[in-house]
């Protein structure tokens, strides 16, 4: 029987996704071999693809040529209709007509973590909801920097977006690679509105990152006095010490920027001025080392103890002398004279 007189069944679409289609023509090939009365002959197959319905032959392109019985057509576009057909060859000049085309539609491209983070960055709540509703990703998936969507929304001051993420069970306690929580990120950037939401939903003040630092310590970095005062009023321990140097938030202030308003806020909230770190240093000593004259003046105004010795056996005044902090030395001399304290 001439091959071109034999009808050929279309290939079967066994599976597909957003970028590929799996075609199988084993049944069609078996029927063809039965028709030519030769079940052992090797048959060469050409499979073609077109995008959508085409009327012209040049709209088709080869996607498979060989002796197999199936193939996976890759690199397709999502949400797109494709047509596939095949024909069998016994030789270069002995082959069938093309089979009827079979239709396959690739599905919509699934959402990935990148889609969620882009939607959060653009502040598109509807997009965020679409991504999370798809069920393809978890709400706590991290970006290239190891931050969850909740962490990014917290540090950017996006309370409405945070509420959406929390409604999809975003983790409050999730930590990045440095051990920082969303609350810590919000504190670093001084975001009072997002700190309030996190604390309302159970975020912990007595939590430490890998460096041993707490949320209140990070709030000091932001210099947002309203944030600092609110956190302490909400239950944050004003005298909590980090796990690295044993610094309180007031000591961190003295070490970093020496902001007088931040220090005043802490003192007003009952910060202990004379707490010592693991090296026996007080806040006054740390302020002296870092040359923060205004902070030294404030601490003396609130009667910081100038007679305390650190583990090296030196007082704040002696440290000032050794570092040649002339303005601080004069300031401390006046204070000690006023208080009747000998130079220590």
TrEMBL record:
Report what the protein is called: Fibronectin type-III domain-containing protein
Q: PROSITE patterns, from UniProt?
A: ANK_REP_REGION (PS50297), ANK_REPEAT (PS50088), FN3 (PS50853)
What keywords are assigned to this protein?
ANK repeat
Q: Isomerase: present as a keyword of the record?
A: no
Native source species:
Octopus bimaculoides
Gene3D superfamilies, A to Z: Ankyrin repeat-containing domain (1.25.40.20), Immunoglobulins (2.60.40.10)
Q: Which GO terms describe its biological process?
A: regulation of apoptotic process
Which SMART domains does the annotation name?
A: ANK (SM00248)
What positions does the domain Fibronectin type-III occupy? 7-110
Q: Give the signal peptide range.
A: none
Q: Repeats (ANK): which ranges?
A: 145-177, 211-243, 279-311
Query: Which Gene Ontology terms of cellular component type are present?
Result: nucleus
Cross-referenced PANTHER family, in alphabetical order?
Answer: FIBRONECTIN TYPE 3 AND ANKYRIN REPEAT DOMAINS PROTEIN 1
The keyword rRNA processing appears for this protein: no
User: What Pfam families is this protein classified in?
Assistant: Ank (PF00023), Ank_2 (PF12796)
